Amino acid sequence: MNVSMNLSLNNTENAFAYKSNTDLNKAKWLFTVIQNPWIVALGTRLTPMLMKSGLPVNGLIRSTIFNQFVGGETLAESARVTKMLGSYGVQVILDYGVEAKEGDASFDAVTEQFIEAIEFAATQDNVPFVSVKLTGLSSMHLLERLNEAPRLRSGIHDSESDDAAWSKLKERMYAICDVAATHGIGILIDAEETWIQDPIDRLAIELMGVYNKEKVIVYNTYQLYRSDRLRFLELSHKIAAEGHFILGAKLVRGAYMEKERARAEAMGYPSPIQTDKLATDADFDAAVIFCLAHLDNIAIIVASHNEASNLKCAQMMQDKGLPNNHARIHFSQLYGMSDHISFNMASEGYQVSKYLPFGPLQDVIPYLMRRAQENSSVNGQTNRELLLIRQEIARRKAK
Ligand SMILES: Cc1cc2nc3c(=O)[nH]c(=O)nc-3n(C[C@H](O)[C@H](O)[C@H](O)COP(=O)(O)OP(=O)(O)OC[C@H]3O[C@@H](n4cnc5c(N)ncnc54)[C@H](O)[C@@H]3O)c2cc1C
Q: Which of 18, 202, 216, 368 could make an S-S bridge to 299, C-beta 3.0–4.6 Å?
């Protein structure tokens, strides 16, 4: 057994070993640019227009922000990045990064893409998971209606077309999970906004009851910035224990805080978000503690760029005498961010994955804009990314 806590996240040589000097300088330039909120605001507005206008911006986007955050336009292209990550002991969560488009034809095409991604994952030795967004497989309006109408939760629908559309969504998810179960690939169901989350949770639990009897195939996502989610995690565990299946729990803080608060205020209901960051952090820690205490029937993915969260989980594993590569404990960060966490943890034998989006350039633009927005603050994550990149550039120069 390999039980050690030699973990330090400060080793930039490990973190950026996969980046050439040119790559490192490009990353430094990119993070410096997107640190500026007004450039990001302008870029977010102009990029889709420039792409439609036929101006030659695609090459620039591809060689900068796309290369930093995306695996490739196709699965075949992503294979190169997947292999590179594997050579450092880093695993991959494939993420078909295309944003939701309405219509059955689109939902069926996205279902096929997920199935192709699972089949591709099965051919690689470092791709244990594929992430799935239910908003790519069904109408937002349907999810919203199902979320809003409590009577629908009993399974009795008030409209035949909703009933049929809900059945279609289920069929798509069962088709995806059947292929995943055949190949032993995990399906991570992303968490969305509160106003569409309830049907996603219900379907996730139903699927776990079917597919997680012996192995963990299906994972739901728990957003600990919601004040009700720790309780919901405990409840999910209770349902799993009673239903004799293993709970797959991906823990995140949550991505839609501003949107959630603004909607709650505009519509006059209490915000579902914790009152402050400390409360979110406390529930995130409590969720990790809860999962580690129930590893007999929970598999956990700590999906966070927060150094303290990753270190605390690693420390708890050591305190409990658990091996770094415990089969039911996984860590994950987005491709292009927090390499110091992913690569340093992987080099100490923890199971770490990068969320690796792939998809046509045009289609992944909204994903790229979100990454730029999330990094556009001098106080936040970018500062840390830039500091580490600068440190590594200086270390290489001093050699
Ligand atoms: C692999 C991976 C998968 C992900 N999947 C999903 C997903 O399915 N659904 C989803 O919603 N998000 C997802 N995310 C995004 C995630 O929810 C966070 O937005 C992001 O990771 C930042 O949180 P952190 O723990 O990394 O870092 P931190 O910097 O420690 O936390 C920032 C987060 O804290 C919370 N926060 C900040 N300020 C406050 C405040 N004043 N009050 C209350 N809370 C506050 C917010 O959630 C904010 O995003 C994923 C992230 C990763 C790395």
A: 216
Give, in order, the Cα–Cα distances in Å from 181 to each of 128, 170, 186, 208, 327: 12, 16, 8, 11, 17
- The residue whose CA has the least distance to atom 2 of ligand 1 is 303
**Beta strand 247-252 pairing with 298-303:** parallel
Ligand 1 center to 221 CA (angstroms): 12
Angle between helices 21-34 and 37-53 (to 10 degrees): 100
Could you tell me the pLDDT band of residue 378, with boundaries at 50, 70 and 90? low
Which of these, 170, 183, 131, lies nearest to 359 by C-alpha position?
131
Q: What single-letter amino acid sits at 56?
A: P
> 153 CB under 6 A from ligand 1?
no
Identify the CATH number of the domain defined by range 101-303.
3.20.20.220
Of 253, 333, 382, 385, the residue with max ligand 1 atoms within 8 A of its CB, to mutate for a pocket test, comes to 253
> 3-class DSSP state for residue 355?
strand
Domain extent listing, the chain: 101-303
